[in-house]
From TrEMBL, chains A, B:
First and last residue of the signal peptide: none
Family statement: Belongs to the class-IV pyridoxal-phosphate-dependent aminotransferase family.
Protein name (record): Branched-chain-amino-acid aminotransferase
Organism: Clonostachys byssicola
Keyword Zinc-finger listed: no
Keyword line: Aminotransferase, Pyridoxal phosphate, Transferase
Coiled coil regions, renumbered to chain: none
Cofactor or coenzyme needed: pyridoxal 5'-phosphate
Keyword check for rRNA-binding: no
């Protein structure tokens, strides 16, 4: 008879709080250090995992370096995945997470794809809530209503065997930091820079994701290889790459965000379109993407209930020639890129094959309407069950 | 007038040798710890780089963990690349590297692709030689002729900004470890396991590399995402995945190695074929791959000079139906996978679409002939300018 020892599941209730010896000062919201994107809070949660024992007790520890052997699986074979979330200080002074289970479930899906260990998404969420509760009173104080902290759950393969194999050791690490405006939602309705984004389409020699690949997972290997094209776009004065796929040059993502276009059909109807999450798995299923789709669908469904002109919502392929034709015919009312860190950013120009395609900004009031509505939900002005209140620890 | 400060280049002559306090014991060649692929030598070389200052002085330090912020570019965005090389203890007791500049140049190419800093490949090679010279006297002693140490130069983005950007800090790290047989060349002519490898073709839903991607670079992001399919193959009793691409199911790589097939044309001629390094960039340009091509071309060119039946050498696409047809007609004389770590391993079976395709092993003497010839070069039995002698430090 074989006796199999049960390995331990991820269990947030086992969290051990370690002492914090050297707390850091909180920067003012306009502190220039924030833009370096290194300003984390005092503490992080780490949890070790081994194939033999499962998940160890989570620990709340001072934020600091991880110690990894040069042979570590994450450093050699990119066994790593992460999530991006925000903790909002609402106008009522309370802390809120926005659809956080969506991100925790996606983290599990990314971990599975990159051969990192499984866990119960709700336990991850409990750990995130604990970290928020402990860190927010100091780092997102009650008088900073309307602002947010960025949360980055990360998992890496720490197995120090150089062999090419599924890691037998891993570490989960959850930390928080300031994210500079425009995405820091001091006032989300004002968080879009005055000019819109300028996007440069990817060259045919640079493909971000592909059928059978990993475009739908939030893993490190989707990002590093795109820096080369990103840097070329930056050097030419663009903000992000608009990633295309296939001979028909269809749009997948804009930078690390999801892309939307608002246009009129030839029949004159208003339509919001975003590329679909089809079987090819080219596109990350963004939390903000899903939310925008749902808000447009519920807000502008029919002329009877819609506060603005009704708008159809479609998930379907968009090619660059679709966009060029529609712009030529004056049918495009706006385009925007959305993501947790990036928020909702309008696009004013797309560079493509040596041509500059100008996109109208805010020609229809729908985008501003949805942005305000979503900010109102995130900041607690409107009741909505997408939002979860975080009860904070006494400071 | 703008004064631009020149940043420092990688300079092996600046190597600083730090003290080694706790040397480790050398395992015996049959020590079971070697198979865990964690048995490194006492020391490694590390070099820090910043965008502002360039490369710092290289340091020979005790082998140990790297300290990386959880935000580090390599852990979040997989800005990382590596190389695999071997140091041989020849039958004459001298140390040899095999075409090492090839790997150093490929490391530069991989670093460029993943937006890590540039360097002079020859300086990397000088550092590798220094590490070998310092470590081999103890770890690859003179009486272990015919054996080898595996060398893993690694570069990671250490920039602790969470922003998505080209890393402004990086670290180069060169370390060595034992690699177990069959790839440890105790006697390379004997290093193939008695049975051949069993390969399972990748499913259409799992694609390792793609046109416009990174298949031709040795970066972490090419490896982690393939573990999922690799593990499925292992669970079914196969050794490696045979990675296919495209609707015609053409072969790209076998695991992390290059694939060769030896067969007869319908006209009866002997032909060695491997997939080409074409513009699509699906395949890593292996050092051993290149060497096998050159050895076959020079050894079996014409009936006048060839010691065995002459053999044509082709780099062209090979589809699974090519292989199935040729096997059905009895034209396949052998197939093998090659790489620095894997050496030359014959294939005895390919699982594909539920069918088991049996491949002859060693039906032509050419593979064994080339394996012996190459081992003779690596171990110094034959003079060859592919090999570089490493003069070692006094122990």
């Amino acid at each position: 008879m074989t006796v199999t020892k049960a390995v331990s599941s991820l269990d947030a209730s086992k969290l051990e709080v370690l002492p914090l010896d050297s707390p850091k000062p909180v920067p003012t919201p306009d502190d220039s250090s924030i833009s370096a994107l290194k300003t984390t809070t005092d503490r992080m949660i780490t949890v070790s995992w081994t194939a033999a024992e499962g998940w160890a007790s989570p620990q709340l520890v001072p934020y600091g370096p991880l110690s990894l052997m040069p042979t570590a699986s994450a450093l050699q074979y990119a066994t790593e995945c992460f999530e991006g979330m925000k903790l909002f200080r609402g106008h009522d002074g309370r802390l809120r997470l926005f659809r956080p289970l969506y991100n925790c479930q996606r983290m599990l899906s990314s971990a599975s794809r990159i051969s990192l260990p499984q866990f119960e998404p709700d336990e991850l969420l409990k750990l995130i809530r604990r970290l928020c509760a402990m860190e927010a009173p100091k780092w997102l104080p009650r008088d900073r209503t309307g602002s947010a902290l960025y949360i980055r759950p990360t998992m890496v393969g720490t197995d120090s065997s150089l062999g090419f194999k599924v890691p037998e050791e891993a570490q989960l690490c959850i930390f928080m930091l300031y994210w500079p405006s425009p995405s820091m939602v001091t006032d989300p309705t004002q968080s879009v820079s005055r000019r819109g984004m300028r996007l440069l389409t990817s060259s045919e020699a640079a493909v971000r994701s592909w059928p059978g690949g990993t475009g739908l997972a939030k893993i490190g290997g989707n990002y590093g290889p795109t820096l080369f094209e990103h840097n070329k776009a930056k050097a030419r004065g663009y903000d992000q790459v608009l990633w295309l796929y296939g001979p028909d040059r269809r749009i997948t993502e804009a930078g690390s965000t999801n892309f939307f276009i608002l246009w009129r059909t030839p029949a004159g109807e208003l339509e919001l379109t975003t590329p679909p999450l089809d079987n090819e798995g080219l596109i990350l299923a963004g939390n903000t993407r899903q939310t925008i789709l749902e808000l447009f669908r519920t807000s502008f469904a029919s002329s009877a209930s819609s506060p603005l002109e009704p708008c159809n919502v479609l998930e379907r392929r968009i090619t660059m020639s679709d966009i060029e034709c529609a712009v030529g015919e004056g049918l495009v009312l706006g385009a925007f890129a959305v993501g947790t860190a990036a928020w909702i950013q309008e696009v004013e120009e797309i560079g493509h094959d040596g041509r500059e395609i100008r996109i109208n900004i805010s020609k229809a009031p729908h985008v501003a309407y949805i942005r305000e509505k979503l900010a109102g939900i995130m900041l607690g002005d409107v009741e909505n069950d997408w939002v979860e209140i975080v009860e904070e620890a006494a400071i």
